[in-house]
Amino acid sequence: MRNTLQVRRGSEGKVSVFFCGFRRFFSAATMQGAVWLMLAGLTAVANTQNVDPECNFPLGMSSRLITDGQISSTSFVNYTTAPRYARLNRREGGGGWSASKDDFSQYLTFDLMDRSRITAISTQGRYNSNEWVKEYRIQFSDNRWQWRTYGQTLKGNTNADGVVTNTLTGTWIGRYMRINPRSWNTKISMRVEIYGCLDRAHSATFAGDGYLRYEISREEDRVATYQDTIKMRFKTNQPHGMLLYGHGSQNDFISLELIWGKIWLRVNLGTSTSVDGYTEATAGSLLDDDQWHSIEITRKRRDISLKVDRFFVKFRTNGDFERMDLDRQITVGGVDFLFPGVIVRYNFQGCLQNVFFNGINMIERTQRRVDAFSSVGSVTYSCQGTTQSSLTIPSPESYLRLPGASGRNTIALGFEFRTFNRESMMAYTQINEGTGSIMVRLADGRLNVTIVRMVNNVERVVPILSDEYQNDGRWHSVVVNATENSVIVTYDYNRTINTNTVLQLSTGDKYYLGEPNTHVNLQQSLNQLSTGDKYYLGGCPPSAVSQEGCPIRGELKPFQGCMRRIVIDGQNVDLQRLADGRLANSVKTGVQFNYCGIVDRCTPNPCEHGATCEQDWYTFTCNCQPTGYNGATCHLTKYEDSCGNYNPFGEGVARGTKFIDPDGSGPLAPFPVQCATIDLHTVETVITHDSMARTAVSGFAGAGSYKKDINYQGSLAQVLPLMMRSERCRQRIRYECTNSRLLNSPNGQPFGWWVGRTNDKMVYWGDAGPGTQKCACGLDGSCRDPAKYCNCDGIAGFETVRGVDEGYLTQMPYLPVIQLRFGDTSPGSGFHTLGPLECFGDIMFNNSATFKAAEAHLRFPTFQAKRSGDICFQFITRAGRGVFVHNRGARDFFKVEMLSPRQVSLSYDVGNGRQEVVKQMTYDLNDNRFHSICAERNLKEARIVVDKQRFQDPALAEETIPEVMDAHESLNLNSQLFVGSDTEGRNGFIGVMRDLSVNGVHQDLYSAAIPAWGVEPGMVRLCEPVNPCQNNATCIEGWGFYECNCTLTPHEGPTCSNGETTPPASKAGASTSATVRSRHTRGRRVQMVSHLLSNTDIFNLRTSLKNLCQNYATCIEGWGFYECNCTLTPHEGPTCSNEIGARMESSSYLEYTFPSEFRDSVKDNITVGFITEHKQGILMHVVSETGNYMTLRIKDSGGIQLRFDLGDGRDEELNNDLHDYADDQYHTVNITRVGKRVSMLVDGYLLNQRTFDISNDRFKGLSNGGKLFVGRIQRGGSGDTPSNKGFKGCISRVMFNDVFPLKFYFLKKQNIEFQRGGTVRAVPDDSLLRSSCGIEPVIMPPRTVEPWPTAQADIYQTTLADGMLTTEAAIVPDVVGARESNSSDAAVIGGVVAVLIFVLLVLLCMLARYAFRHKGSYNTNEAKGADQADDPDTAVVAGDPRHTGSDVGKKKEWFI
């Protein structure tokens, strides 16, 4: 490699310096320092001693080009001394590799990935220890099982930190290399660097003015590809340079550049008129460290991956084009013109190796002068050794003391440095015999040169401060030139600060780099400048602190970083001689040479969501303040993902502005909304926009010529997830018109419309439906012009009268409104008003699962959290412990569990050993209330957050532990994510989990629970959908039990159904309740302890354990039998499963009149089962004399509709049009109303649920002549159902609260009085024919006799403690009946044994017969003449001489 230095004087005193192809500008005044720096670089080159200059490069242990996965060992002590830490001059982990066994069978193995030639090895001991290897052997292999041993044992180290280099003789090539320690001090421990080169490497050295060129203008050379691969290796000490560039005539290009030590890839596959195809990406950092680095680029159409060493970036190009068309040239190492996509102005300066473009070796072909390949400028086809050395000052205790020229009257101090620390002292020396000092430091990241001197016994301080930051990890320079009359500070090569002052100084004899000075007040004795003889760099020893005014104190810390090109008193410092200890009067403590060990912890940026990263030598810090996220890496949001989660405990959320993050830790940013509590179950979310004010429209004649875009407080991407988790949304729209048409109904071209999120033109208005081209008045024919469907469309006769069309848009697939369009406002006019988007409820609260057994669990995809990840959920339980989530890898794991009622734990392992963070609560978490948990792990910390909405200070809700820095970072998991238990299906959580999200993505708990064992979808509730408490009593639900509050009823008992035993007046102010509790016993027997439980408790427990009665009937248990009480069900029969239904014609109906004592209700339950083929009819109509009503009917479309009015004066609807239910199949409909919240279940599926905006939530007036109709309505008014439009089919299970009209009717016909005081009749009389509607009853199982338990049997004992039923294992003594049980068991066992013996004997007989049939000798008395006989009988007669007559007949035998 050629190194050139040219100095040229230009105009205005400017001097141009050309060094290695780079040009720097200096003024004449700063020329001295600049030349010193350049000479320092040249001297470093001259003094570099390489055995083989073309193959003596570090292969990447220190630079990490050799990755952790390429290093292995036979053993290691623990994760901090794993082989990954065996890197020369590095101190991460435990400071090196340490074997767990100290014997001759230990090996440290390196996979170099390619066949490489090894020329030298450098070793150290383990940092800050007394452990090192004294002697070792090395071996080489190409396949890892056949090894070649280097001829001699190599000498190792004599201390822990010194570097010993062994140069190999001969040629040693292999892909694998391993070190075998043969002698050691205390323990086998070492750090290593390997030197050499690739075996078949094609290299080139670029001096900054040359490059390689591949002309591709010929048709056969042109590049027109959909896939590309680019590979290369490079090393340089310059921060900028062009590596590769290619371009074509269609403006396609690819540019690979080095800018400030980072790789930038820019690609353009083509630009159209609408989309720019320019795309860029960056990877890597600090690549100008004169170490080898690798680049690999893979493109497949528009998908590109960029890999730089261990950094990996994937991205997709902009535009629509997929092919790269290059037809001009491809250059390597530089360009001769600033083509499109070229940013850097410098050609590459350094070494390139094995540059491949789609398999073409660019260097090899250029070197062979293949056609179309050529070189321009200075290119050498070999790679020289390092051109300049650097040193690392890694710790506060490290420093250099360098000799100075004492007594000089000028100061010349210069060096280059790189660091990330904001505060650090870099250089210090005394002047004027110790009465003054010069210090170079960083103050808040900016360069500061401070000169202290005594003038007339007064201390004068001259600070010189730069206006730019130098703690960015890049190489910076500083040169201080001082005389008696001026101080000139030149930094970053060409920036100058002049200070004209009379110094009258005398320099000292030491320069300290690293620590601040404390001036000692001594009388000035000399008036000239005099230098000292010592310079300190990077820090000061204790002696200099106490004797030479260089103390370490305050926030100013010693320097930690790298330095090179050091100039002291105008003389360059030979770093190689300094490293070897050959520089006189110098001291080096803890300094590492020929290596820059600075680590960029902010690349790639560990901070998420756009947060900025700052770092020092040890760690990084993320600034999360402006992002809306928190934590060490700004991963978790500070806000909730819905208004409902600001009210997770049902305590209500104050009306006001809240920030919502719809995807939690996902990419979407938080945005403000308005939250308000409608009731304990429903929260309203309001999203405002910029067009809510009443806005005039005038002067737009054409249809849709007026356009108004709607901008919401959040983007559409933010609003949509919030809508999708809401139960319903709506948006009010209003148009006021004067002689201006809107939809131009009924069939005209609309003048106005709105556009939804689908970008479709919507030609309907509020309260109407899609495709109708109607407004609200068009639905009921109330428009001012009956022939029109909108008030604004009827302008004839209303030219000067203002019309209004308004209503709510409720179709969620089209909301929100993103644009309004109007026309026909010239000469007419209009005003539009668009309300905010209003959403209600949160369906994620229904996305839940109930875990009923400790072995039950759900499985989801693997938790992806290599660098950071989180799992959040809500839970409710009565259990005291259990595993919530668990995911495993080969060694790593991640687990969240409840350790006790007040302790929640996050434990994990990323390869650094098990870590655990435990959050200690001040209250119990198994209190049957919902609680929230978020568990997060990132590169810097792990934390668990519990119930953050309960604490005003968020810090009180979380617990954190720091991560182990410079150790294993990636959490590698490969099993499925187990939810509800550990991965072995044990120690599971029992309770309900809901709203589970993984990395901000919600998981479908409900669907996953449907096929799972031991898990039920949804939250298994005992109070819904059918209230088990009778007579309108309130059901209070707990975990595994419910209580009926009978205070507002005249009844008592567990379900408030016992007859009135106490006058209601005496109950005033009293609260009567009963508790029904349920426990899962998993098939084990239960023993009741009568002295601890009342009879009612025993009854309730037994019936809840296994209720054989159907349809919520009451099971009455006797001794050895049970009975089902069907009173409170619409059924009858032994198990209350017999249907009571009726066949109805369209003209018939059933009418029930409520009794006068019937109470008003806040909760209502309606159940109806039916079969029909006709899309018509009233399933149930309940109406009071005051006009309040509820109607359940079959729509003309076959759907089901609930319409009601509880006193607000308007009709509310709940529709289900998902299916045509008039399909001659049996269907059940259940309507549950709790206050303003109404749910519709059809065939057991929750198909619609809504909270209505109504002021009255109580059904009143049924006690005053209220009626219930089934089939059709017949009250003698306009609302009656025509006789041909009634229900036609079979109907059963008719129930309204505790009223069963069909059952009452047929019981009345049987003369059974059970009508709750009401009256029931059928019209016409006897028109209802009883039917089961094809539903078969459940057959009562046969009575079984449970055997007595045997002695010492393990059963469950149920006790009553603290008002709760609990079950625990009990030992039951032997009883008399045990003998009967034993006898019964013995009889069964004896029978089985007898059958087995019989089968065995039969088999033995068959085997014996088969065996003896083929063995032994025997005689036969076969009849003579048998051959001629027709049958055996004839043969016997013919062969017997006694039978000679013909009168002898045949004898026959008959077998029956």
Describe this structure in words.
With 1456 residues, the chain is mostly beta strands. It is 8% helix and 38% strand. It is built from eleven helices and 97 strands. Strands 4, 5, 6, 7, 8, 9, 10, 11, 12 and 13 form a ten-stranded antiparallel β-sheet that branches. Strands 14, 17, 22, 23, 24, 27, 28 and 30 form an eight-stranded antiparallel β-sheet that branches. β18 and β19 form a beta hairpin. The longest helix has 35 residues, at 1378-1412. The radius of gyration is 46 Å and the shape is elongated.
Q: What labels describe this entry?
A:
disordered N terminus, 1456 residues, 8-stranded antiparallel sheet, elongated, mainly beta, 10-stranded antiparallel sheet, 38% strand, disordered C terminus
Poorly predicted runs of 5 or more residues: 1-50, 511-527, 1060-1106, 1343-1383, 1414-1426, 1431-1437, 1440-1456
Average pLDDT figure:
80
What is the multimeric organization of the chains shown?
single chain
Number of helices, counting only DSSP H or I runs of 4 residues or more: 11
Q: How many strands in all? A: 97
General form: elongated
Work out the radius of gyration.
Answer: 46 Å
Distance between the amino and carboxyl termini: 116 Å
Largest sheet: 10 strands, antiparallel
